[in-house]
Every structure is written in structure tokens, then in C-alpha cells.
Amino acid sequence: MRKAKPKKRYILPDPKFHDTLVTKFVNYLMVDGKKSIAYNIFYDAIEIVEKKGGENGLETWKKALTNIMPSVEVKSRRVGGATFQVPTEVRPARKTSLGIKWMISFSRKRGEKTMRDRLAAEILAASKGEGAAVKKKDDTHRMADANKAFSHFRF
């Protein structure tokens, strides 16, 4: 166990939308420290979403992110000799980071040619409640629901 909790690092808002959540997303999207390329990918993806979707790209992205964020998950807990999958509530900070990670990882696995196209397609799919990232959230919720009987092992 740690002696003290680590200090919370606060990140600066992005230059275009002045939103800290966008900066957090871009930091997860970034590869090899190339932040300007990550910003360009994100902004281009938002433009593509605006063209295809018709409404505000940033609002569509936020809606997609809320559709992906899980509210419950399972954690392994050893009781006696057995390991149980215990359903637990997800902290708000972990919710956002899981949603961001899932959106980026599943958009990287898509078949479109460029990353901006993949990200835009994943954002559009998630905002409609479909796509691989939303399926991952549903699977997580289903797993927690199936293991509801072990919720008394919560710590």
C-alpha cells in the first residue's frame, strides 16, 4: 500500500475547443510523444463527424463517449480458496479513462484507411449506440449482472 495518494495532475484545455476532456483524449491518442499529430487526427475526425452526422462534432463525440463509459465492472476477489468476480461501481475518473481507452483501441482496429476516418466512424457508431466500443460496455455490464450473486463480497 502507498503511504499517501499521489497528487492529482491537472491538464490544460485544448487550443481549439478549450476543453480538458479533449486534451485527455488526445493524450491517450498520442503515439511516440507526437501530440500535434494527435491533435490533427482528432480535429479532422471531428470535422468528418460534422460532415457525415450533420450536427456539432464535439457534442456528438461527447455523446459517443457517454455511451461508451461503463457504470459497473467486475473485479477479482479471493475469498477462501476461490476467486470470485465481484461487481463494483466504477469511479467517475475511471469511467472516462475506460471510455477513452476503449474508443481509441477499437477505432485502431477498424478497417478504414486513415486513423481520422477510423476515429470518425467509431464516434458516429458510438453516438448511435452501436459499434465495438459500445459492445464492450454492454459485455462489461452483462458480466457484472451475471455475477450479481457475489456482490456481498464487496470490500
Task: Briefly say what this structure is.
The chain is mainly alpha-helical. Helix content is 55%, strand content 10%. The protein has one domain: Ribosomal Protein S7 (Orthogonal Bundle).
Structure report:
This is Small ribosomal subunit protein uS7. Keywords: Ribonucleoprotein, Ribosomal protein, RNA-binding, rRNA-binding, tRNA-binding. Belongs to the universal ribosomal protein uS7 family. GO terms for molecular function: rRNA binding; structural constituent of ribosome; tRNA binding. With 155 residues, this protein is mainly α. The chain is 55% helix and 10% strand. The protein contains 6 helices and 2 strands. It has a two-stranded antiparallel sheet. Strand 1 (72-79) and strand 2 (82-89) form a beta hairpin. Helix 3 crosses helix 4 (92-108). The longest helix is centred in the first third of the chain and has 19 residues, at 35-53. It is globular.
Estimate what percentage of residues fall within beta strands. 5-15%
Order of helices and strands: HHHEEHHH
Helix content: 55-70%
What is the CATH class? Mainly Alpha
- Helices and strands: which structural class? mainly alpha
Low-confidence stretches: none
Q: In which order are the strands of the major sheet placed?
A: 1-2
Rounded radius of gyration (Å) = 18 Å
Function: One of the primary rRNA binding proteins, it binds directly to 16S rRNA where it nucleates assembly of the head domain of the 30S subunit. Is located at the subunit interface close to the decoding center, probably blocks exit of the E-site tRNA.
Organism: Roseivirga echinicomitans
Family: Belongs to the universal ribosomal protein uS7 family.
Subunit structure: Part of the 30S ribosomal subunit. Contacts proteins S9 and S11.
